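worker-03 picked up job from queue 'complexes'. Input manifest follows; two sequence lines, order preserved.
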Amino acid sequence: MHGFANPKRFLNIARWLTTLLLVSGLVLAGGALAWGFFMVPPDRLMGDTVRILFLHVPAAWLGMGGWSAIAMSSLVFLVWRHPLAALAARGAAVPGMIFTAICLVTGSIWGRPTWGTWWVWDGRLTSMLVLLFLYVGYIALAQAVSRDGGSSRIPAIFGLVGAINIPIINRSVVWWNSLHQPASITMGKSAIDSTFLIPLLIAVAGFSLLFGGIVLARMRTLLADIQTEARLRRKAMG
Amino acid sequence: MREGLNQMDFVIAAYAIGVVGTLAMVVWAWLAMRKAEARRDETRRHETRHNEASLDETRRP
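worker-03 finished. Artifact:
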């Protein structure tokens, strides 16, 4: 891991890996969405709205996965002071926020025909909304620290503390009465028929690859900005 | 199904938002990366040229 923390080595790997992840992610996610939209039969209870599953579930998974990545990278940064770990945390913030927003919007659209309402203030929906606000706060904080030259430890601590919300989201449907259904897929077990499960797993894999590609692209952007700033500062100092 | 709503309208709306949001994010991340790396390479080239010019000046008798 220490070897990978070298920016030059990171760029050597990231240059080809970014394109590979983005292209394979687009192909897999696009294929799974087309499968879910055109080929999957309507569900006995939910009818055609079951097709939203192939977008909503990967978005929810990546919304929570994005913050888990921020928390882990922040921990690595605080303990080992790897500069690339701080970049990885910042790189995961924007895609994590967008996928959380997609999860909330698609869930709301799904809720209208199935529950009869766009929104309810129950545990799952509210904790997911809190996650969106945490992302917005983290991005604003990281940008302010980067602009004003503050310590990178501040957003890292925020990233770690915010991780408390992840198990709350996960257990919310168990702890509180909720319109939202309990988890259909748990470790080694699935309540979903294979007709829906296979395209769902492909969609999750595809969107995860896309997420990885976007995080690498964001890290390369942030690294290039830092290197440019350093050169310009050196030049200004003569 | 309540109020005689057409379920496919909701499916199409969800897919449109999800697909457009994801594609916009991919394009934005890619273009921002290309722009930042081009700017870095330009400052690197400029610095190299500047250093070589300074070196030539010190070598001049």
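worker-03 released lock.
The CA atoms of residues 12 and 24 of chain B lie 18 Å apart.
The first helix of chain B runs from residue 7 to 59.
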